[in-house]
Amino acid sequence: MNSELTEMLGLEFPVCGFSHCRDVVIALSKAGGLGVLGTARYSPEQFDIELSKIDEALDGKPYGVTIIFPAAKPDAQPMDPESLRSQVPEDYWDYIGSLKERFGIPLQSVDGPGDGAVNAYPLTRDHALAMLEVVKKHPVALVSSAIGAPPTDAVEELHALGMKVSGQVGDPKHVQRHLDAGVDLIVATGTEAGGHTGEIGSLVLTPQVVRAAGDIPVLTAGGVGTGAQVAAAFALGAQGVWMGSAWLVTQESDLPEPLKELLVKASVSDTRRSRSLSGRMARQLRTPWVEAWEEEGAPEPLLPPLQGVLVKDAQSAMLRAQGGVNSGTPVGQIVGDLTAIRPVRDVLQEIMADSVEAAERVQNAYSGLI
Ligand SMILES: Cc1cc2nc3c(=O)[nH]c(=O)nc-3n(C[C@H](O)[C@H](O)[C@H](O)COP(=O)(O)O)c2cc1C
């Protein structure tokens, strides 16, 4: 297919696929899309290892990474994990203690390092900059900045290394910030999306972001999981799509099997936007853990990065010891369309074949006019 995205990155299909799982990223890029690895789960050292394995498996085929750049306050102090933990009020640790008991979370692993949880590392600027140093050592095709706009000097450095940079926005008013930073691509993330998300639906958001972005190509993210939605993204003016939730239930995904099964059974109504994961609104599977933060008497989730620091070890333990069925995962409303666990390649090929049918339906409706 021809789009500004496929041309920019040398792809067969106009699909970027986000995952924290290396094998999903490899499978996506091998299948003709762009696999994009998330950083939030990794230390810089582990991230380096993951990228080396991807480099070896892909042998020159393009892939991407995302880095979460929280907006820096001018007076921001370096934030090490210990000092962050000490800033969490005592009654919050008490609440976690009560949840540990209620959900039977094994104490041993609760005190572990939190590796494996989606938010294993605090979303601080220091962590983002350390990840950036790792990225610069690898042949990464696209670096995507999540939450905040990437720092302009980082964009310049990445451009000098031949990498493209994209920025994710959930509101058209944030587009200019990313354009000023010098991004090559904008990802318009609608409220339907899994993970951090705003309040505007993709159908409204994409055309407004396209208008605001001018010559810079835009991708639709949030609520894309079928071929019809890929074709719709093009109709809205996007040059491709960015998908995350659909890959969670693939064979290559390293989510525990019980959690994959839960996702397969979930309906479109089984997600919640909640601040319980990181302190920012993130759409997640509605699980007992997420509901516990909404019930009467529960404390208001802390602001980022403290909420992530507070919950990460318990979440990691629930993932490891209980298959993730209590803790859940970020996932978007498209979860209602995920009905089987299949290989990444099959999912991508079916979506692309269905998108051709959807495009034909549009063409038929307009026959005589085009
Ligand atoms: C489990 C999960 C974790 C995510 N974590 C991140 C992340 O760390 N960084 C990021 O840029 N986007 C993250 N996202 C958002 C995706 O990049 C993407 O915007 C979103 O999944 C698109 O909407 P969809 O879920 O409807 O496909 C995450 C999404 C999911 C489902």
From TrEMBL:
Transmembrane domains' residue ranges: none
InterPro entries on file: Aldolase_TIM, NMO
Domain of life: Bacteria
Record key words, sorted: Flavoprotein, FMN, Monooxygenase, Oxidoreductase
GO MF term set: nitronate monooxygenase activity
PANTHER family on file: 2-NITROPROPANE DIOXYGENASE (PTHR32332), MONOOXYGENASE RV1533-RELATED (PTHR32332:SF38)
UniProt name for this protein: Monooxygenase
